[in-house]
Amino acid sequence: MSKSKWVLVLYPNCVDCRLQREYSDNSGGPDTFEIDHELSFLTGDGSVIHSEIFRNKKYRKGYIDWDSVLRAKRDDVFVHKKHLFIPGDTLTIRCRMWKSQGSLSESVKCSIETQIVTECKTFVGAIQKFSSLRTSSQNFLNILYADSEFFRVMDLYIFDDGKLVIDIGLINYEPTNMYMFKVFIMDAYKNKVKSCHGEIYDRQPFYIPLTFSRKRLIENKELYLPNDELTLRFEVFCPRISNYPSKINDMTYDYDCEDIQATITNPMNSNFASEEYHTESLILLKKGTNIENVNSSSKEHHTEEGAGKGLEKIEDMSYDCEDMQAAITNATNTNSSKEHHTKCLTTLKDGLISLFSEGILCDTKLKTSTDNFPAHKVVLSAQSPVFKSMFATDMREKTSSCVDIEDLDADTVHKMLLFMYSDTVDNLNYESAKNLYFAADKYNIVSLRHKCSDFLKQYLLHSNCCEVLLLAENHQDTDLKRCVQDCIAENDEAVFSSDEWKDLEENHPRLTTETLRVVYSSLKNRKT
Question: Is the pLDDT confidence value at 438 over 90?
Fold first, then answer.
């Protein structure tokens, strides 16, 4: 506007975003500019998560209005609502600006994308005479290779039940950064066998449980313990730090690196946690946690914020380390020549996915209005008691080679089948989660219904809560309904003034009356 230049400044500790007039605005723009503007966090499909509008703000060159801030809790961005704020590991912020007085001669839209350059630090540690190690013991890992001094300590704990936990402490830690890590067991053929992965938010040491137990390693010692030595490879991905801010497409991001609020999350929720590695839920435990109680459930832990400052360079994304799951060689063939080490065990899950994707040995098909999906009766019956009843009793589907599905679209049926074969759901969004929820309830696929319900709970906004409330009511999901009612209680003014609520009142008065009681009770509790 009027040849002026602007930047968005992002402070990742909270997360805060503010608008700033460029210091080097020598393009002929006015010295002082009065504008209205709006800052918004967007989801992957462009929906608004949170938005703030600021009126009659005067900006001089280089001026930043500290009161005009778009803010989100770091825990929400990186943990609780990560799928909303950073789908595909991308944070999207929209800035809309217009003159406080007068009119614009034209409307201009531009998009700018920046990416953080990363580097991978690699460390290899080993423990000799692993089979002789006692339970309830702490064992030091001998560092065989390290491309930089990054870890302060690296110990392996063996608990009474045989669980293995790595104790890691960092030396070079930038408190603003989040570090992503992977841990591999190196097998007898130097293949990397993935054992765990996750995220580190804090400078304190962490306990990292491995998916392999002591018993499993010893039972397959020819493969995992060559010469009775356990070798672990660590890969840590972190941002590269520069003394100067970079500039991409006339957009500068200046990071004020105050210490983050530490959050210890389930590593399986990290960007590196693709569903194919969900062999066991992992946790990170802060130093000082009772590690005797390590189990496979996820936990959260919070520490207080510290302070520090720095600048972070933003460039093209690059990963320097190989990112592939190592092949797991059949231990029973270890007496054979190592020329055959590429022979791998195919998991049951991989085999089922292969049968589904290639359409091999299918004995039925699911037919929608637009597509046919070949499938296997035994798999459908194992996952769904509804399909089991169809194929095992004297229903038409038992003798027919086709199941007609008229109330589900092809994409929903495909996602449902993929889950039944692989126990994973990919590329969920609000609409597909709603449709899958309906499908899961119809065919009584309990685990899929839980996944969709959890997704809808996290996706709740005041603009869609009425729709989700009705969905929960229709499917008699009391847990989801109560969650939606709590959301409405927190956003009562926005919800009750919406057209969606008025439609709900008109068509479902009993449900809205029940919800109003919940909101009233919630308001009373707040006052007391």
Answer: yes
